[in-house]
Fold DUF6011 domain-containing protein.
Amino acid sequence: MPGTTAAAGRRQVRCRLCGRPLTGTASRRTGLGPACDAKLHPAPPDIRTRRHDVEQDPLPGT
């Protein structure tokens, strides 16, 4: 059709959370934009920076 772009030929997919149009292939596949996906699926903490505080009994003889 005259006056249309190549991207207009694809069906427009919108984010299921905020309703913004999605352009990336992965975003279109999941139905979530990168910002909304990060809100629903936060990255796990880095194991090297996580601290574990454990209560310990005092050493005998101290």
